[in-house]
Amino acid sequence: MIEVRNLTKLYGDHAAVSDLSFNIEKGQIYGFLGPNGAGKSTTMNIMTGCLAATSGEVKIGGYDIVEEPQKAKKLIGYLPELPPLYPDQTPKEYLEFVAEAKGVRKAEAKKQIAHAMQVTQIEDVQNRLCKNLSKGYRQRVGIAQALLGDPEVIILDEPTVGLDPKQIIEIRDLIRELGKEHTVILSSHILSEVQAVCETIMIINKGKLVACDSAENLESFFSGRFELSLTADCGKERAEELVAAEGLNVEKSDEKDGKTFLTVSTQREDGDEICRELFFRFSKAGIALLSMSASKASLEDVFMKLTQESEDSPAEEQAPAGEQETAEGGSSAADDDASVIAPEEYKEEAGY
Predict the structure, then answer these.
(1) 222: Cα separation from own chain's centroid
(2) At how many degrees (to 10) do helices 135-147 and 91-101 cross?
(3) Residue 58 in contact with residue 64, Cβ under 8 Å?
């Protein structure tokens, strides 16, 4: 549905987007996840034709956004981070204006406006001035205008920013409904939001894509890495020796007041058995384990690890991996023409 190839956007010497490539498949809800300043909004503005790229190309339904902008833009409904409303118009007047601007025929416009208002549940406020609407209703009006023209793709930039918890839940429910009839792409820096509504998560950092997969697959990969934190009543060297005997990797080790605080990891999944083995090994050595706790990775851990590794890696190690994964059907599928940038161990495990 959407092809992004080698997209780069420079502001002077700063690369807001750097050689970014990915595919968007039809009929899914995609989450564009990344920290503030990662390049999400810049990428979306380029994809919708609102901003020119320094280099690279974007195709919507096979139409180049630069060479065939009218054909490409007809397939897109776009909600920027700040809804482009006219404060002295009512939602109904505003939607009539947008429909005309999009070239929707008058006979069809009335039907589409009624449908958009019904889907976004703004019928009760259609005759109020936009400036008198709550932030939640303004967002709904913004989404309603994106629906006009019956686009195949709906792109939403930070759709829940500034909303209260009730409004956030309502907008998330609305996005799920839109996903039944449209391909939806939304950007966010809020992990829980992307996890709640998106089928495929694309993590971007410093203008580069560092992972693309379902939340379940991302968590599954990293949850295989079982982590254990323990406190041993002995010196650092002896504690590390006993841990290494069980085939565990020491991630962090600190000694203080004769005690050693360790964080270890393993690819083994039998967490209870690992704890049991360690307990008896330290006990046999006559050393007390003062504390021991186990954990597996959450999506937040995945996000932090991927973005941190992309920041720490030299530029030459962040080359396109040559294949992209999608999460259709809960599993990954490669696309020979797409590029996904990912930490080396994720690329190796995921088959990039």
Answers:
(1) 16
(2) 30
(3) yes
Q: What are the C-alpha distances in Å from 254 to residues 127, 215, 231, 236?
A: 65, 33, 10, 7
Residue range(s) occupied by CATH 3.40.50.300 in the chain? 2-75+151-220
- DSSP reduced 3-state for 67: coil
Longest dimension (CA), the chain: 85
Fold of 226-295: Alpha-Beta Plaits (3.30.70)
- pTM score of the predicted model: 0.68
CATH number of 2-75+151-220: 3.40.50.300
Residue 182, classed as helix, strand or coil, is coil
Q: Are strands 153-157 and 183-188 parallel, antiparallel or unpaired?
A: parallel
Instruction: Please write the tens of the pLDDT for every residue from 35-69.
Output: 888 888 899 999 999 999 999 999 999 999 999 99
Q: How far is CA 154 from the centre of its chain?
A: 16
Task: Pick left, alpha or beta for residue 54 (phi over 0 → left; psi -120 to 50 → alpha; otherwise beta).
Answer: alpha
